[in-house]
Amino acid sequence: MKKPTKSIIASLSLGQVHTLVILAFAASAIAAVAPWRWLNPLPTWLIDTALLAELSALAAELKADWPVRFLANLIGYASSLLPLYFVLRLVQAWGYDRRGPSRGILPSCIRTLALPGGGAASPKDDENDRLGAPRKPSKEQQQKQKQQHQSYSLRWCLHLTACFLGLQAAYLTWGLLQERMTTFDYNGERFRDSQFLVFVNRALGGLLALPLMLLAPLTSGATRKSSQTKASDRMTDGKQSPPAFEYVYSSVSNILSSWCQYEALVYVTFPTQVLAKASKIIPVMLMGRLVSRKSYRVDEYFTAGLISGGTALFLLSSPEVAEAPSSPTSTATNPTSATQQQWMNAVSGATLLAGYLMFDAFTSSWQSKLFASYRSGPIQMLAGSSLASCLATVTAQLQQGSLVSALGFAYRQPLFASHLGLLALCSTLGQLVIFHTIDSFGPVTFTIIMTVRQGFAILISSVVYQHRLSGNAWCGVGVVFAGCF
User: Fold this and answer.
1) pTM of the predicted model as reported, rounded to 2 decimal places
2) Whether residues 73 and 201 fall in one domain
3) Residue 317 domain-assigned (yes or no)
4) Count of domains observed in the chain
5) Range of 183's domain?
6) Are 455 and 481 in contact (CB under 8 A)?
């Protein structure tokens, strides 16, 4: 904000600030429940009509309506989240942490939304001194720890095996269900609302994360072993919990990445999508430099290039890249028209995969920044991201009127409803196993496990859904996973 604007905001009284905040909360709530026909002036005001016409023409040319639905989703997210962003900037510019009250329902909501640690003071350095720095263990203690480590080696192996099997079971099942729900019919009907799938996954994650947050203080004494040092470091390093709105940025990018992932399966095969996921190291590195100012070694760039080269080999060698199971190519009788439609499918699929890679890379980079800058654990991250994602997705669905139709589809198709519940359960349990694996064995072990999962996913999908992969395509798969390792 410019200085004159800051001076105007600083001159506001507490009552005026609270009035503006209440109006912003009301605007966000109205946008979250209002049907789109109530908000007809909003899209016209935000988006030029000519741009909407061009997007509609592009959708007709591609024989795909995803560009228009993508824009509609963005408008839905903005209508409910921009008022909250206004609250964030208002209270920070006004100095609510110094001038605002600390008690009451409204002040508590404001501080939780916009201020680190709910506006509480940072931990004092003298508290850190009183707790004391961790001491280096003596030689006897080191020897005892070594003996204990050897005695627990079998338990460690069993623990790692359980994490490996848990991740494989959760995400291999999740991948098969994702492909089944987005590319096949249910009694002649096909489900096309990818945003509803994202909403259900995030809703179940939030419902599970909230009680875990409440139970964490009761169970922390029994569960902290390898994570005890990390937890104590987070509590004594002077960091505070992030403002709740900080979760919104990664939540929106995570929604968009998931949406692009589901939509891409309409235009490309599941093995193609999996290989694209394996090549996301380059977008992650670029986002790391942009968001967190990270630098990378030469060998890391070489690995990224190797993975990307293997992905390109797979894409150029696979006969099904532009002919997904749900592709309209199969209905075309003219060979020229069929070839053109395949090309259009490839353009749509590549665009959606690029969007997935970009949004997913930003999500992980932003979450890494939050972990480094604030005192936030995995369960808090899951809860904050899930709740923000639920707010954004349900707003867009209510505005577009798609929530009722999606629920109606689930009611008419019991098999789809069972697949939906299992998909959400696999996604939520998989997230919890991810957090536990990283906490117990570190990110490197977790990355290796998930890389193995991608190979299994391609193999299982090719067998179950009969995808045709050429010899060169399998060579591309080998190059990608050789680069990952």
Assistant:
1) 0.72
2) no
3) yes
4) 2
5) 156-215+242-484
6) yes
